[in-house]
Fold this protein.
Amino acid sequence: MPLTHRLATMADELRLSALMTCAIEHLQSAYLTPDQVAASHAFMGLDSRLIADGTYFVIEDAGEIAGCGGWSRRATAYGGNHSAGRDDRLLDPATEPAKVRAMYTHPDHVRKGVGTLILSLCEAAARAEGFAALELSGTMAGVPLYRSFGFEGVRPFADSGVPMLLMRKVI
């Protein structure tokens, strides 16, 4: 059965949060120390603004949530509801890239096309709103996927001791 997608709703929040916690714990551990995985929870997670903005997707496999992710027309680069430094300013599509945000795949559904589908949906939606580029803050676990989708590294950085890579793609 092929993967399906839909926009997330507020009713999905508990299941999405559980999926995110599971993904952080299991998929980051091959790239991060246990302390870095624990630190990831301080800034990763659900951003309800993406759901409210209608830019967050749920990917399902046979009715089960296999992953989630989205994009934003707002300046916040990454992080969840609990993250510091959020910026709800609307981006200017003529001069600023849209942000790909909060991509998570359930460990039981890796290598099934979940991430590629999310990136394709984000790119199409951002392009339809006039954006000429996408930008994301990639975890080390996500960088190979993002590179395969045409993103290029801009600069490495860290949050709470967790290494990340700012990446960009012209669309």
